[in-house]
Amino acid sequence: MDMSRPIVPSLSLETLPRFQRATVAAIEWSRLEAPQARRLRELGFDEGVDVEVLHRSGGPIACRIGRMTVALRRAVAAAVHVSPAA
Amino acid sequence: MNPAPLIALVGNPNAGKSALFNALTGARQKVGNYPGVTVERKSGRLTLPDGRPAELVDLPGAYSLEPSSPDEAVTRDVVLGRQAGERRPDALVVVLDAGNLPNHLRFAMQLVALGLPTVIALNMVDLAERDGLTLDAEVLAQELGVPVVPTVAVRRRGLDALTEALTDAVKRKPEPARDTDPLPQLQKQARKLAAAAVLSETPARRWNHALDSVALHPVAGPAILLALLFVMFQAVFSWSEAPIGWIEGAFAGASEWIAGTLADNLLRSLLVDGVLAGVGAVVVFLPQILILFAFILVLEATGYMVRAAFLMDRIMARAGLSGRAFIPLLSSFACAVPGIMATRTIDDEKDRLTTILIAPLMTCSARLPVYTIIIGAFIPDREVALLVGLQGLVLFALYILGILGAFVAALLLRRTITKGTSSGFMLEMPRYQWPRPRDLLIGLWQRAAIFLKRAGTIIAVTTIVLWALLSFPKPPEGSPVSQVDYSVAGRIANGIEVAVAPIGFNRDIALALIPAMAAREVAVAAIGTVYAVEDSEDSQGQQTIRDNLRTRWSLPTALAFLMWFVFAPQCISTIAVARRETNGWRWPLFMVGYLFAAAYIAAGLTYWSARALGL
Q1: What does the mean pLDDT of chain B come to?
Q2: CA angle (B94, B99, B102) in 5-degree steps
Q3: Does A78 fall in a domain?
């Protein structure tokens, strides 16, 4: 990971602007219930993975992770901290 | 002789596993159940290039060997050789979505480590290439130590190479299982391997996202979904008219032929009034059920269904449910039995239980016969707006009523007996795809076969039993009591009528409610049989069910009857599957109780207000 760039902890997948490419900086696993945490991991969420928000609705958000699109509720997205790509 | 080798298809959901299964086995498929659990077991025959037959079994899609649902538990137990009623597979076909390697490879690595002879199908390579991703199967094969065959299941590409590799695989002996690293490390190794296998990569094309921008749009999205559902229900009514006419004609012809051939005796009465009247009244709905299933299958195959779940999550969350519940609930529009089974993909127990309890409120296709016949007899056939018929509109309203009822029930349940934190909604959204006519036809054929089997067995038997109960004992000569009133069934119904008379139900309805417990559509068959038995005494001869209904029922009674069917848990199979899925009688009994209460109240309110309005 590029350590010269400071991680902005306030930016999460929930607040990341649409179509702004970013990498997952950290995931607050403790904020998630165990089955949700495991599913999130199984869907490929991990530090250093590149992500992007594609669609927002009043309910869940859809984001791109790698080449896959995943739907998440906002509460879960808020636990995924991201740092925007340059 | 050794049994044919067993080959299991395993992979992540959305890897194109079912399409590969259909391509390899064609229409030679058997759908059954694993003993003790209600997970569907799909198997088929496959002939290997050396002429040996093999049995191919399609395991439920899973993300890992740590199951989070009963479906995934079956997948794990089968590959580990622990599933009751299934031998351990002799070989595995691990299906990977070529466009999703970083994610799918992790599960593949876990499976390869099990030591079973394994072949990897690198599926949907065409979509990946169209998406700008070219992969090197050789690199994957070397790193994983198993053959990797690029395939395009929907175009039947790579199938020969795959069966070729399987011929060798089934000859190999299983090796001892190796340990794998914990999930986070495995994930990193998978990503590294996926990156190593990439020959060239351009950024993913955006057409999927462009489609999603419309389909998931906060305003356009729900509007499209609602329009689709509306078209679906209108189509169920209007497209089915012609084929229904053919089926009716065929049954009428058969009745006439028997009436002209046999003398007027008990056998003729059994065949014409019992079997043909009963089974015919039900088979006639095959076109509507197939149209409904065709829509559901297309929505699933194109990938739209998951978008619908996404759109619905917000509303579902308000009822304390997850958007995931939308798919089982939509399947329940065809039949609550597969709908309740489909709740197995919901990880959260309370969420799942709530979904099971409300699934019977979705208007299943077995209610359609009842609705259509009553609507056809009592609601005038006119257009209220361009292309919108009044009859279709009433039908739509009945569907909406079931949905609203389910919503209210879920709200109440989630605040009382299934109280708990709201579960999550997290799922992979597959790429859009053109549905394959062949896969749709196989799906439709399976539904039609199940329905006709039901019509030929449960429904035929119950209508014959009902005919017997209606035909015996015979009243003495010159008795003023009619055959139906004198019969065993008539006497039982006269007892029930006391309980249902306040909500406007007459004896014929009370009579129809008993066999309708076997299957709702039997209500129509039962009424058909009652009137056929009565008409056979009548000097004017047989009348159609519709004419009989019009002369014998009032409009408030008909409306109350419709309302009853919106809520009543009229189907033993649903109760049985709820028992199996919840491991006991407690929840199904609760479900039956609350639904009957709701049905009685709703039918009563309708009847009384219709009377008060002077209808």
Answers
A1: 84
A2: 70
A3: yes
